[in-house]
Design brief:
This protein is mainly alpha-helical and 444 residues long. It contains 17 helices and five strands.
């Protein structure tokens, strides 16, 4: 306990770090306040309590703002979609590839394109949001559904997304951690206390299992979190030796470094892509209602408690993990950069042999990584089959848990870097360091 208190004192003793933490808290508070401001022309008392499927995912990322029809209803999701599009374009389109290699100027251009795509995607998603409001169960929450309401809602939703994007950039520049990721994490965590309280009440009722079952669930949750941390931080280090060079009276190179290849290189993207794909069969089945085959497809693919859904989701995640890893990691490029810098893997020839070696290592570690990722993704569905509430089960895996663990590790790693840079003790004992997802190659 004394160690924790001393660490907190050290954190707030550093003026720059203290200001960054306060700025982060204030910006996140602004986001949470905005998520409760309802769009003009909406009767909040007639809104649905929750949404399932992809709408539930958007509502989770927006911190419940989607379900409340807030001005921040679409949250940061359009920006994430635009970032994914730009990332794929930098891989597939030569013009974008050149911009990605132009340094700071190229990154500025790509950021501008990302902002433009964000506005376009928000404009399109705004019509889907209006369709959701109009197609809800019961009385429509729209007070006066006319052209003026349509235009004002689209303007407010675009402004809300741009404001959220601005908050994320301000947190990154003036705060601590990645602003976009922190906004998503706060939106997810905002539901955690209510979910825990609801699960406790459900277990306390007659036939709910009692307090013992609730404590078992908490212990299991901690084990799942520990397992997820291992997945996020797991790396396979490849030794890289750099040849010695003598220039004048000085010797350069000769040091051994490590090329860390992550077990889960794709991060949370395979789950997001796979969940989007899994909605397609159920959507198509709705067009053929009354047909026994398509009714069975709708029943299995619209229920996350179905074993057919879980198996299909797991296989899709494994496939997307391999696909996304293949387009983000280029063994040939890594081998060429090592060769240009007089680096080589001990026992492996530079050039093509090094590229093949890195590709083989990535293939071997991607398989267990993709299987573990699939298990985490289907964990909420498995826990619901044991009687756990839906709101509490979502914290046992899936996108929510991976984002929370990854963002917290990144943020703590940045705080620890600030402490060690000023000769303070880190957050861990014994000289251990917290490794974030973005940690670079470590020297031996």
């Amino acid at each position: 306990m004394k160690k924790i208190i001393d660490t907190i004192k050290n954190i707030f003793a550093i003026e720059d770090l203290r200001k960054r933490i306060i700025n982060t808290f204030l910006y996140l508070l602004m986001f949470r306040i905005g998520s409760y401001i309802v769009l003009p022309g909406i009767d909040s008392s007639k809104l649905a309590d929750s949404q399932g499927g992809m709408l539930g995912l958007i509502n989770t990322f927006a911190g419940g703002a989607f379900g409340r029809a807030s001005i921040l209803a679409l949250g940061i999701m359009p920006y994430i979609s635009a970032s994914i599009v730009i990332q794929l374009l930098t891989i597939a389109v030569p013009q974008f590839q050149r911009m990605a290699k132009e340094g700071e100027e190229g990154r500025t251009k790509l950021n501008q394109y990302t902002r433009i795509f964000t506005i376009l995607i928000t404009f399109i998603q705004a019509f889907g949001f209006l369709a959701t409001l109009r197609g809800g169960q019961g009385a429509s929450p729209i007070l006066n559904d006319n052209f003026g309401f349509l235009v004002s809602t689209i303007v407010f939703l675009i402004a809300g997304t741009v404001f959220t994007m601005w908050l994320g950039e301000r947190i990154t520049d003036k705060g601590i951690g990645n602003g976009i990721s922190l906004i998503i994490m706060v939106g997810i965590l905002a539901r955690f206390p209510q979910s825990v309280w609801g699960e406790l009440n459900a277990r306390s009722t007659q036939g709910g299992g009692g307090l013992f079952v609730f404590l078992v669930e908490i212990v299991f949750l901690l084990l799942v979190i520990a397992f997820t941390i291992l997945l996020v931080q797991g790396t396979r280090k490849i030794p890289v030796q750099y040849a010695k060079r003598v220039i004048g009276n000085k010797q350069y190179g000769g040091a051994r470094q490590w090329l860390p290849l992550k077990v889960n290189q794709a991060g949370v993207m395979p789950i997001i892509f796979a969940q989007a794909i899994m909605f397609i069969p159920g959507t198509i089945a709705q067009l053929f209602r009354g047909n026994p085959f398509w009714d069975g497809v709708a029943m299995n693919f619209n229920s996350q408690n179905s074993w057919i859904y879980d198996v299909s989701l797991a296989l899709t995640i494994i496939a997307f993990t391999y696909f996304y890893t293949a387009i983000t990691i280029n063994p040939v490029q890594i081998a060429d950069e090592m060769k240009r810098n007089n680096g080589f893997v001990p026992g492996v020839k530079p050039g093509k042999s090094t590229a093949d070696f890195i590709d083989n290592v990535m293939s071997r570690i991607t398989l267990p990584g993709s299987i573990f990722l699939a298990l985490i993704a289907i964990m909420p569905g498995l826990t619901r089959s044991f009687g756990m509430s839906t709101s509490f089960a979502q914290f046992f895996g899936g996108t929510s848990l991976l984002i929370m663990v990854g963002v917290l590790l990144d943020t703590l790693q940045q705080i620890e870097s600030q402490l060690t840079m000023r000769h303070y003790d880190g957050l861990m004992k014994g000289g251990n360091r917290i490794k974030g997802r973005t940690q670079q190659v470590q020297s031996m």
